[in-house]
């Protein structure tokens, strides 16, 4: 695998201005900020994936949060959803620390990469289908670069699932027709790649108990083992 491939892709993603509505929104948020982060210099650009280039496990979300990844420049960092995800990864033995505060906080992921089908923070956390489709080539390229080592994928939420399956097909995996339906705990095999469904780590799901820490850890641990990664307690 070309070791420079993924860093170069991340840089190109960070410079993307393809979706006018998303560019306008992410930059407006970065200018106006939230009062709690008034002293921050917001990233205000598309947020690339985070994690090693030889990842065996990929986690696919939805899009960066306006005052999370759009502020910190790192996927699932600086917001409540990220707090839940990274704590679970740490508990399972896939992260060096349980918190993700900013891009230089020393967090490392072990054999895991985190990405999303939409790389800009969208208004109301809702990208349009057109924006999702415009962003898809980035995910396709990322999947192609990861393919030599990738063995399992956890997709968070139905939106991510619907966005990811066409990307897998475009990247060269055989996706069955009709496409597998999203469900928490769903597991499908795509050409030797184990694909798992998990409720999204949104506050709506975690605050209501629809997704508990135990449920999230169970999916992550099962996916890590499918990917051949050691987990805590093994």
UniProtKB/TrEMBL annotation:
It comes from the Bacteria. The keyword Membrane does not apply. The keyword Metal-binding applies. Keywords: 4Fe-4S, DNA damage, DNA repair, Hydrolase, Iron, Iron-sulfur, Metal-binding. Residues 48-220 form the Uracil-DNA glycosylase-like domain. CDD domains: UDG-F5_TTUDGB_like (cd10031). Gene3D superfamilies: Uracil-DNA glycosylase-like domain. InterPro entries: UDG_Type-4/5, UdgB-like, Uracil-DNA_glycosylase-like, Uracil-DNA_glycosylase-like_sf. Belongs to the uracil-DNA glycosylase (UDG) superfamily. Type 5 (UDGb) family. This is Type-5 uracil-DNA glycosylase.
């Amino acid at each position: 695998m070309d070791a420079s491939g993924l860093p170069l892709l991340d840089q190109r993603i960070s410079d993307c201005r393809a979706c006018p509505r998303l560019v306008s929104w992410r930059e407006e948020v970065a200018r106006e900020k939230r009062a709690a982060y008034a002293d921050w210099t917001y990233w205000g650009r598309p947020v690339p994936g985070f994690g090693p280039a030889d990842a065996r496990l990929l986690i696919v979300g939805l899009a960066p949060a306006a005052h999370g990844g759009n502020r910190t420049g790192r996927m699932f960092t600086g917001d409540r959803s990220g707090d839940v995800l990274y704590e679970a990864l740490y508990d399972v033995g896939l992260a060096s620390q349980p918190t993700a505060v900013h891009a230089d906080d020393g967090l490392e992921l072990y054999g895991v990469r985190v990405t999303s089908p939409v790389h800009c923070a969208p208004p109301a956390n809702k990208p349009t289908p057109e924006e999702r489709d415009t962003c898809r080539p980035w995910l396709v390229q990322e999947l192609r670069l990861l393919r030599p080592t990738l063995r399992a994928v956890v997709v968070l939420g139905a939106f991510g699932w619907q966005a990811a399956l066409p990307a897998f097909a475009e990247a060269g995996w055989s996706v069955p027709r009709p496409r597998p339906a999203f469900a928490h705990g769903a597991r499908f095999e795509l050409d030797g790649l184990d694909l798992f469904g998990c409720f999204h780590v949104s506050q709506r799901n975690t605050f209501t108990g629809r997704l508990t820490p135990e449920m999230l850890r169970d999916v992550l641990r099962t996916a890590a083992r499918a990917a051949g990664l050691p987990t805590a307690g093994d």
